[in-house]
């Protein structure tokens, strides 16, 4: 493992080096390394589409401001940069729009698409809460949060399902929270840090995952989705066991015995040189298009280590101890 860490410490991307030093080795923030991240070619590629006359919309997958700010927060971009304020304004205007305060009671999936606002079925709100959750997480992480973030947190708390999470499923029969819609709101509320938000994250939302050992059905013990047992980077709004374990690490819950199976699985996925990205959710392109990302995040392959997945896996395993 020391050889893997040494190789990552020599990686040409300053964000990889920063993540290893701070998240894996637990060092204080290295002077100057955040500025290197800000000025890196990778960050310039991420920001480039947003400066074009035909800039993608806020939520355009994966080049919109929503996704770019999330990537910057994960990379270790320096907090408090006023140059990002225009992007902050875009995402807050989108995720605090009046439609998110308008609830419409409907009884069918078809009816839910005929009205603007948040559909409510059988007393349960069904927004894409991962949008507000991710925004809350990256705005806090990037030092861009202001009083409007209280409104993001309020919406998330208001929309919670009885089991502690969130779900956008417009099938009226849906009765449990979704991993996809719960992970980012949980992380966002924890980062927000108010007592009510942290209680909702740690005591309620985390249980959505822990009851299912981060990947397994509570009733049968079967894997919920085969994709959950594949590693990816970036996750965007998706889920896999590494993403779940990162969330548990942030909340200080890796010591819960219900994380043990996912941790063992993660360790078993190690290959020579680190951990692979088994699959990806993006296409690499400088063109604006659905699921195009401006950055190649290291490629995929069952035997090929991916530096971003490897640093994330090492950080989780360090937090376990």
Strand-helix topology:
Blueprint: H1 2-9, H2 14-24, H3 33-38, H4 41-47, H5 65-75, H6 85-95, E1 103-105, H7 109-112, E2 118-121, E3 124-125, H8 129-141, H9 149-159, H10 179-192, H11 195-210, H12 241-250, H13 260-268, E4 283-284, E5 292-293, H14 307-320
Parallel strand pairs: 1-2, 4-5
Antiparallel strand pairs: 2-3
Helix pairs in contact: 2-14, 5-8, 6-8, 8-9, 8-10, 9-10, 10-11, 10-12, 12-14
CATH architecture assignment name? Alpha/alpha barrel
Helix content: 40-55%
What's the N-to-C terminus distance? Answer: 15 Å
Uncertain spans, ≥5 residues at pLDDT below 50?
Answer: none
Oligomer state of the chains in this structure = single chain
**Overall form:** globular
Any idea of the CATH class? Mainly Alpha
Strand order of the largest sheet: 1-2-3
Sheet of most strands? 3 strands, mixed
Beta-strand content bin: under 5%
Radius of gyration: 19 Å
Please give the number of β-strands. 5
